Amino acid sequence: MTMDPRDLPPAAEYVLRLLDPEDEAAFETAMRSDRALEAEVAAWLRHFEALNVEFPEESVRRSVKTRLMERLFDTPRVTEPIWRRVWLWQGISLAALTLAAVLGVQSLTGPAAPPGSAVYVSEIVSETQNLRLLAAYDPTRGELKLTRTAGGAPSGRVLELWAIRGDAAPASLGVLSDAETTAVPLPEAFRDPAGLILAISEEPPGGSTTGAPTGKVLALGEAVAL
């Protein structure tokens, strides 16, 4: 960049998280009713996206994955342990988080959100990056909006969405359609992002009949409040 950081416009400072909390909150309030400002944020996001290339990816230790997958999914039904075939998220990328934030803000430009509700997002991604979905919770409709940005279900199979909180067993949120964008009604129990994990498994047509994942768990994501 040749621009003096002191001359950056508010939209660029917002993308780089340089605004103080009060200014950031005021900016997000303004963005909810200003589509031009949303577009400016998206443009700055694309401008800064290449900065992510400078940071190497860090993998979670295998022991952490093992303990988590044992706790969440109990004993797998397949010979190969499930945690050896599933990658745990490395965190939401700057690009995905900012785009999801814009999506979340756009969803609130309609009716007012219920008191105490919160927008949250999750990047649900596989180890190889060949399956990736962006999820944003819309409290005005009680829906989780999912946008598939890469990959799909294996031939003859479907993708099923699961929600996990704490030590509870995975709860199915339904089978995802083949459409790029899907809206899933979200039960009250999963409208708070604290400790919430979203997972995608591949299942037979119609989805799991056991109330638990029966096929491979392909992707995982952690809910992050905006």
Automatic annotation (TrEMBL):
Pfam families: RskA_C
InterPro entries tied to this protein: Anti-sigma-K/W_factor (IPR051474), RskA_C (IPR018764)
Annotated ranges, domain Anti-sigma K factor RskA C-terminal: 93-217
Protein name: Anti-sigma factor domain-containing protein
The organism of origin for this protein: Seohaeicola nanhaiensis
